[in-house]
Amino acid sequence: MKKILLLISLIITTLTQAQQSEKAKALLDEVYKKVTSYDNIVIDFKYNLDNVAENVYQETKGNVTMAKNKYVLNYLGATRIYDGDKTYTIVPENEEVVIESTKEDEMALTPSQMLTFYKKGYSYKWDIEQNLRGRKIQYVELKPTKANSEVKQILLGIDVQTKHIYNLIEVGKNNTKTTITIQAFKTNQPISENIFKFDKAKYKKQGYYISEL
């Protein structure tokens, strides 16, 4: 009898986990569909890195403008432009520009790919719901399927009403916790296509060292 009850319990648990996984994937797919429907997205974010054991705590802010497979990222005093073909990293402090040829599938900051990481290499499940400043945030937990991954888990917070990302919490196996919180999320803004173009002559004139990898 005990073995039968145990078997029933295992079956129920397995079915529940499968349902939670399907529920989590359905929400992620819904968010992905919403994100890719916009012409462009402008995000202000806060980045926190915390490791209590190593007594490390960092907090910085940045912003990113994305349109389809192009973006401009301002972060840590540098500007990074991706024009759909090459990446241009501009560092005013060093008066330097680094140009790299980059395949689109390697990028993780485009609307079409900012959520595709969950589609391969992760298991996921429905997690807690929190009420944050009047907003219902549903969390989905993602865990790498590869044992050699440096990531222990990822928690993706999603605004239940807007289906926009609220935050992303990544916990490493070294117990480093990285949190990216979206502070402003604007869509379909009147932006110029020129912001995704790198003006090489301009930076040469300003005396920047330009290297192409």
Automatic annotation (TrEMBL):
Which residue positions does the secretion signal occupy? 1-18
For this protein, the record's Pfam families field holds: LolA
Q: What domain of life? A: Bacteria
> Which CDD domains does UniProt cross-reference here?
LolA
Does the record carry Iron-sulfur as a key word?
Answer: no
Cross-referenced Gene3D superfamilies, in alphabetical order?
Answer: Lipoprotein localisation LolA/LolB/LppX
Keywords from UniProt, A to Z, are: Signal
> Matching InterPro entries, A to Z?
LolA/LolB/LppX, OM_lipoprot_carrier_LolA-like
Instruction: From the Swiss-Prot or TrEMBL record, give the protein name.
Output: Lipoprotein chaperone
Tell me what organism the protein belongs to.
Capnocytophaga canimorsus
